[in-house]
Design a protein that fits this description.
By secondary structure, the chain is an alpha/beta fold. It contains eleven helices and eight strands. Helix 3 packs parallel to helix 4. The longest helix has 21 residues. It is globular and about 45 Å long. The N and C termini lie far apart (45 Å).
Amino acid sequence: MADAISESPALDPAVPNVARMYDFMLGGKENYASDRAAVASLIEMTPAVPMFARINREFLRRAVRFVASQGVSQFLDVGAGLPTQESVHEVATAVNPAARTVYVDNDPVVLAHSRALLGNTPQVAFVAGDVRESAALLSDPEVTELLDFSQPVCVLLVAILHFVTDAEDPLSLVSGIRDALAPGSYLIVSHATAHGAPPQVAALSDDAQRVYDSATAPVRHRDPAEVSPLLAGFSLVEPGLVHASQWRPPVSVPFEFDGFLAAVGRKD
């Protein structure tokens, strides 16, 4: 339950919150009845929705582990949501104890609660920011206090860009981030998609979008032809842009629709 969530003027427990919905899908306890009801609506349409969330989270961990193994020690997780087990800083420091992580979210409730959960964790900060204001984010003193952008940084845009509408120009937002990164930096992306969905699931994508329309952020599913341009300027790590479950799984698994496209790219 969400009794421990810090109260905030911005908090309306009656409005489903996308970060708390995701927390619930991952088996977390920091959520309200409205969040659980919204997820229940999604599950009615697609029972595998919680599995999709877990697959996406497992991709994040594999990708962070890979990037940390390449010698990158700085991580910027934009649209981080609520911390969960094996969050970015935990995965990164398991590979490199000197790794530094900044989490970013634009939700004041998520911000307050995440800071309380993380406490004074060394080499970790949680700051207010929005992917839609990437220039301000990358120059934020709280960010630059911990991260040095003259050196390689790994930026995570995991399960966040589908909350950016076409009118908000996600391509421009991502290119602005890319241009601010030093050579050798990495981008980790996952994005909600109906591409590859069984017909009965694809037919429900509009209904799923309506559930998010009633929450704190609408969702925009995109197919590979729409996601691929967001990765321009990055050399994609094999196997390229694929479904999340197919990005370097620990064991080979047959493809079953998992709701997310995913990729890791390196800026040369």
